[in-house]
């Protein structure tokens, strides 16, 4: 279960007034969403050693410690704030367990995405129209392969916004907060990225070199 913006704002108001249940719910309701993000972003070498659930648990524990400060200044929308804490944990654990090179914990690294076939199919479902004929499964499988290849060839900025919007399923507002851009700029970049992805897919379908 996730909350829409109005429900989140109501919980934030209650939590600011000292409502302990509201504080706990604010943190708990985004657990699965954070776990999906961590699993998507985590280096496969790290995922063999650390569970996404453990990363999220640590991030939520830290969020609980800093929630009062957050409620006072609200530097980001609530979920992007939680997501940043989880991302920082992913980076810290990567350094600890696989001695990864130095990464920014504020800005995203567009190529640091370990999306699996299931994640790609989520994007496929948004690119392909719903079909009911017997060839649907074969069509989706072919498109899955082409989408995965085309994603890897995109410009890092185009790649990242597609991952944030369609695989992580962030809203326009949340994506803008993560990338530190205006919502209008996000909408423009998303349209451009989708156009370029579809162009890549068309090239692959026709068998032309990309």
What do these coordinates show?
The chain is mainly alpha-helical and 210 residues long. The protein has two domains: 94 residues, Orthogonal Bundle (Rna Polymerase Sigma Factor, Chain: A); 89 residues, Arc Repressor Mutant, subunit A (Orthogonal Bundle). The chain has eleven helices and no strands. The N and C termini lie far apart (40 Å). About 9% of the residues have low confidence.
Topology:
Layout (H helix, E strand, L loop, with lengths): L4 H12 L3 H9 L2 H11 L2 H4 L4 H22 L4 H21 L18 H11 L8 H18 L2 H12 L4 H8 L3 H23 L5
Helix pairs in contact: 1-2, 2-5, 3-5, 3-6, 5-6, 7-8, 8-11, 9-11, 10-11
Please sum up the structure shown:
By secondary structure, the protein is mainly α.
What key phrases describe this protein's structure?
single chain, 210 residues, mainly alpha, Arc Repressor Mutant, subunit A, globular
The stretches of 5 or more residues where confidence is low (pLDDT under 50) are 100-112, 130-134
What is the CATH first-level class name of the largest domain? Mainly Alpha
Number of helices: 11
What multimeric state do the chains show?
single chain
The overall strand count is 0
Instruction: Look at the helices and sheets and give the structural class.
Output: mainly alpha
Predict the CATH topology of the largest domain.
Answer: Rna Polymerase Sigma Factor, Chain: A
CATH architecture of the largest domain: Orthogonal Bundle
Order of helices and strands: HHHHHHHHHHH
The main sheet comes to: none
Arithmetic mean pLDDT? 81
What would CATH call the homologous superfamily of the largest domain? RNA polymerase sigma factor, region 2, helix turn helix motif
| Strand residue content | under 5%
């Amino acid at each position: 279960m996730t909350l829409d913006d109005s429900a989140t704002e109501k919980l934030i108001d209650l939590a600011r007034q000292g409502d302990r249940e509201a504080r706990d719910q604010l943190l708990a309701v985004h657990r699965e969403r954070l776990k999906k993000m961590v699993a998507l972003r985590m280096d496969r070498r790290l995922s063999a050693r650390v569970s996404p659930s453990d990363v999220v648990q640590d991030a939520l524990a830290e969020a609980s410690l800093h929630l009062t400060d957050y409620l006072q200044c609200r530097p980001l929308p609530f979920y992007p704030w939680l997501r940043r804490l989880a991302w920082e944990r992913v980076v810290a654990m990567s350094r600890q367990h696989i001695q990864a090179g130095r990464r920014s914990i504020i800005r995203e690294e567009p190529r640091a995405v370990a999306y699996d076939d299931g994640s790609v199919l989520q994007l496929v479902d948004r690119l392909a129209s719903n079909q009911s004929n017997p060839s649907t499964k074969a069509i989706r499988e072919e498109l899955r392969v082409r989408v995965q290849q085309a994603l890897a060839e995109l410009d890092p900025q185009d790649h990242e916004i597609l991952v944030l919007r369609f695989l992580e399923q962030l809203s326009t507002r949340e994506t803008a907060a993560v990338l530190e851009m205006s919502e209008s700029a996000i909408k423009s970049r998303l349209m451009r990225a989708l156009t370029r992805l579809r162009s890549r897919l068309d090239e692959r379908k026709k068998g032309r070199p990309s």
